[in-house]
Amino acid sequence: MSKPEISAKDQDRVKFAFDVYDFEGKGTVDAYYIKDLLRAVNLNPTNKKLEAFDVPAKKGERTIKLDEVFPMFATIKKDKDCGSYDDFVEVLKLYDKEENGTMMSNELEYILMNLGEMLSKDDTKLVMGECCPPEDEDGCFEIIPFLKKLCEKE
């Protein structure tokens, strides 16, 4: 089956991620993992965009094959509403009041819980705990290490 608009490199990346989520080696992935699979290939789909793929609420409801993932990948990859690493850098620079590459932790917490696709308090704590470098004495953290960890950009 042809995979239009997807480079050979992207096809390989999608297949690799698919194989990781094909826990039983049967050539299928539980559709519950669609969002994780797409994020594993460095895409950042919004929850609203993921709704179009009818992601089940529970594991075991349906499975998908590799050929079903390629169109999902192509759709999300060409979506301009998905923020990229560089977009996030530019946005968070707005909160760098000292112009030294840092921002206040409480401002990030507010952003995550109140803007865009809002996170719950627990999810916000998880993201900040996993991705934020240690705060300085003023309650600020370095933006770039946070974003690199968040976006897993090497």
From TrEMBL:
All residue ranges annotated as the EF-hand domain in the record: 9-44, 83-118
PROSITE patterns assigned: EF_HAND_2
Keyword Disulfide bond: no
Record bears the keyword Secreted: no
InterPro entries, sorted: CALM/Myosin/TropC-like, EF-hand-dom_pair, EF_hand_dom
An example molecular function term from Gene Ontology annotations: calcium ion binding
GO cellular component: muscle myosin complex
Assigned keywords, A-Z: Motor protein, Muscle protein, Myosin, Repeat
Subunit text: Myosin is a hexamer of 2 heavy chains and 4 light chains.
PANTHER family per UniProt: MYOSIN LIGHT CHAIN 1, 3, MYOSIN LIGHT CHAIN ALKALI
Name of protein: EF-hand domain-containing protein
Species in which this protein is naturally found: Meganyctiphanes norvegica
